[in-house]
Amino acid sequence: MADKVEQQQIPTESNVVDKRSEEQIASEVDTTAEEMIAEETFQLTIKLPGSKGSDIKIIASPREAIHDIKQSVMESPESCAHSCFYLALNGTRLNDFAELGEIEGMTPETELQLVEDTYTERDVRLHINRLRDLLGGPYKPNPSAVGIDSGISFLTAVTGEIDEEIVPESEKKMEDLFSSDPIPEHAFTNTDLEASSKLSDFVPPTFQRLAPQCIKSLSLSGWNPVPHARRLKGDLLYLIVVTLENETLNITASTQGFFVNNITNNKFDPTRKSGGKKMGAHSLIKLLQQASPKFASSFIELQDFITCHHMLEVLPVNTYFPAHPWAVQSPEHAFDPARPAEPLLNFGADAVESMRDWNDELQSHRELPKTNLQERVLRERLINKVQSEFTEAAVRGAVAVVNGSVVPLNPMEPDESHMYVYNNIFFSKGNDGRGTFEALGADEAAHVATGKDLEGVKIFNSVDAAGLYTLGSVIVDYKGIRVVAQSIVPGIFRRQDENSIVYGSVDNGAQISADEKFHEAIGNEIAKSLHLDEHTLIDANDEKVKLYTSLETKGLLGADGRRYMLDLYRLNPVDIEFQDKECVDKDDIPAYPHKMTLLRPELMGLFWEHRFREWVKVKTEEIRKERKLANGGEEPEKKKEEEKPKADGEETKENDEQEQKPEDEEEEIKIDMNEFKLNFNPDVFTSAKLGDDSEAVKEQEQVVREASQFLSNDIIPSLVLDFASYAISPLDGDALTKAMHRRGINMRYLGKVAELVSISKDKRIEHIQKLAVQEMVVRASKHMLRKLLSECPLEQTTACVSHFLNCLFGREFNSKPKPEIPEGTTRNDFSWSRLTPNHVESELKQQILCRFRYKLDDDFLQLLNVLPTLREICLRVGIQLEARDYRFTAYSEEERAELAAEDAARSRQKDQQQKQSSRGKRGGKQKNKNDESLPKRRTTSFVPDDIQNLMPTVKQASGRSVFAEETFEAGKMSLAQGHRQLGIELLLESLTLHEQTYGFLHPETSKCYATLAMIYHHNEDRDAALDLQRKAVIAAERTNGVDHPETIHHYLNLGLFEHAAGRTKLALRYLKHALYYWDLVFGAGHPDSATADNNAGVMLQSLRDYPTSTKFFERACATQENILGKEHVLTATGYHILAKAYTLLGDFNKALNVERVAFGVFEKKLGAEDPRTKESDLWLKELTSNALLSAQRAREQAQSATRPSGVTATSVPNGQQQQHPGNMPIEQAVQFINDASQRTTPSSRKGKKKSQNKRK
């Protein structure tokens, strides 16, 4: 969240341009909002068939089509049995693709009839798939998916049963904070706050994966396909259903519905079965309800189970690649005879529906009109949908390619050069099979180039230039092999008389083409947006050719007439400063692995803006001087001061002040922005032969060198300053990576970032140092595992991964782990089995020195946080581990003694069993059974069976809704500027655009939900805030991951919102869940964790659990003191809060001690007149006097011995208290406690009860 705020600080080209664009956005949104208000909402009544006359209500907009209404009907619990039907208005069938607002006779309160339609073979397949989806529940295990627990959400499990009501603001009143009632049980009751998170708790214990069982099995009959004679009678498919009553039903799916037939395994008799029960129905669900009473009752339970989940938990993730957790429970594999027939049920007998022309779909969607907002939304939604489906197909194809299931197009060439076509997608491997990158680093350079190419595709797609097209592109890393998947350009495989490449070069500059239309199309939008310089190149024939893009970027004219841009990996210039210094061998540091060291597009944008600001300053000074010379006297000085804010790029003054300025003065200070010229030549410092004159080339080279210096000298130090000021505070390596990329910093500078942080010796950013080292270890481990996995067979994958993890993390538990190798082989037969902990450590040091130019300390492995590092490695490589507690430390002496005693007991038991075995076979069987029941003790941290799955990791050129994001940013900007109403309207419109474009389940939609939820929370609209925040949580869980930092922050905010709504126990469940993952992702000591601990403490205080709340406040203080130091104002504020907590606890001595510390810091740092100093001084005086009074009273009580010593002030109730003592003035809080102690009655029963409350 801090990242998003920080992004707004990046300056734009000019305030004038920025303000104008905001006004344009606002006006477009206002127009759209007016259109939406003018549209009346339809409240439709759908009349269901049957004698009962039941109906359902559906709210829809006039722009929704009839097929959208049909989908809503199918998803409704009352009508989910229907899937093959049409909707009729006054007896007339409605077209599925007609919009409600365009149908004649349709009114906002129209009643539509649901009419059962005749089935086709496709309708039957859809109906069966629909039933299978319902029976599987929200979290149906899918062994055919690429990963376990795809797109899973834990919100319903964490929420549990809610026993609190939302309390309106008007009805809220302070509870009796010193009541004698027992402290209510909550999530942190009897919880050890000092214990670290256990991996075995990764999946909440309340999570229910399996839905109630309704039938034993549903499968296709062996009598399929339907014979010709029965087709003429309407038979479409034959099914076999085994009910919970163990009855086998043979069912015919016909054009009129479903009925039970007389077929058996040995006899084909498809006639309708006669009997007492009704054996036919239009819906298979209704037929099973009639035939099986247990199905009818279980199906009601199933519907209740599904409806208790949030809508977004049940929806499939269709527009984004779903997240997969790295720690999973071992899935139970269920028997399902219909599972092997899924391709038939999904795509039909000839699988025609699965064959798609991905390229034509993608490009035709891009050619859709975008003249108004509705057209843009439709276009972007379709593009996102097809890209998501292409990604899913590409991932499956890439896995098949790596597993050897696809025959290459060129089988006679080496493996590195193989190309494949599968499901109309072109696949190639991300290495240097053609020798293109030989001079730049071979395979290492080729691997980087594939990622840069995908980045280039994203940039081109975001510019959305007319007349230029890019391929659908996905990068899949699986089992150590990088596979590039691309849509197929029409005509690319056919032999042509002339070269289809009409822009750029395919032979490294020997022949260079520059088609005029290509050149013009690139120059119109791409070159302006990316600031590309038109430069001259010379080919092998000494002919000069002008290009905008680099030599390697190619323009291809497809057989469909479209102009495609390929090989977009070098859109940006070389990072020449890094290449000159680091791509050569040094005394103790090897050369960087490759020379594909390019500057990031974000950096080029920042550098352009930096130079633009400098130019504006220079230009402004020139204008000032000209005006001074022209006018002379004192007046120009006055005008100069008036101009300065505007010339410096700061915000202008109020409109009324601007109107008072003379018109001629405003005209004089205007600057023509088009005069500023700064473009970048991507071909400088490369092997390309430049044709411009030497001065121009030198100037182009100097610009690129300055950009490279700007990265090292300005951007990287500013990032460290941002870390120190907490403008950004990453929680894991992925967040750190994104923070660096947003500022245009390549990850090869991670070592330099770590060095700068280390040199600063600033405790505030010590966590960044640890995180940077952890990220380098993770990336180096990924490189090592990639190489090992690419060389090992599939069946050795789990052994390879577990042995590597043992060498990296388990050396303290077992310093000499033995790999599990196949029988008949030796350890020396495989590269992975030869690994030792020392070898892994030295290789990591070498890799990090080579790739990040950073020397690790000798004890770096001991300083690593094991679980956070393990998590990052699993996510990057695609490993899914079993969620269990792994041991990484050696046994203590006590544990060794316990194990020895256990072994001795086992030995004695074994001896007794051997004696019994000689008495008969029965005893022998008992012995074998006992032997199997004995748990096998681990000798290593990991075993091969812990590796549940190795899944592909995916990078995709996902589309962006530019207008939705612009509206979102404009809304946030309006809120920041104080225009609250406009900001909320913009954000609401942005949310609608996000949902329509990206869908409900998308990371960008999740951010939009969370932002709006926070605004509604501040407006005290509790219901709206909670609803939006729950959606944000689910969308983040299912697309980012259940333990992603974004998800954790959403859970923390959801807890805050629930507490504000009066449901504190539920809020604490959310906080506990978030803090569990926080510890797993980062560990202890993150600066932001103090805020979460303080929030938990406040919530616990409202439940009167003062001992537990005090522990949270103590932990928050310890974190702040460790990071900021004892003399920091924030630390003092924490101590002041802790003093109040100790006061509520009745421990006045501790309260006095910590308040002294707080007052000392406040007085020193803020001065005696600061309100915080005065408040602390008041607390200090009252606590001091109260300590004296308490001591005197204790002496008197000791002398009189009239009161038991076990009763304390904190256990005494006071029903009259109406204000939280933590927020009231000190004299009132202390007086309250003292008055309560004086009112204590000598009842031993009440005293005992109160002392028990205190112990809680």
UniProtKB/TrEMBL annotation:
Biased composition (Basic residues): 918-927, 1245-1256
GO CC term, one of those recorded: cytoplasm
Biased composition (Low complexity): 1191-1201
Superkingdom, taxonomy of origin: Eukaryota
Ranges where the record places region Disordered: 1-23, 627-667, 899-950, 1191-1256
Feature: compositional bias, Acidic residues: 653-667
Basic and acidic residues composition-biased segments: 627-652, 899-913
Domain Clu, chain residue ranges per copy: 336-579
Alphabetized CDD domains for the sequence: CLU-central
Biased composition (Polar residues): 1202-1221
Keyword Transferase attributed: no
GO MF: mRNA binding
Function according to Swiss-Prot or TrEMBL: mRNA-binding protein involved in proper cytoplasmic distribution of mitochondria.
Assembly notes: May associate with the eukaryotic translation initiation factor 3 (eIF-3) complex.
Record-given protein name: Clustered mitochondria protein homolog
Organism: Circinella minor
UniProt lineage: Eukaryota, Fungi, Fungi incertae sedis, Mucoromycota, Mucoromycotina
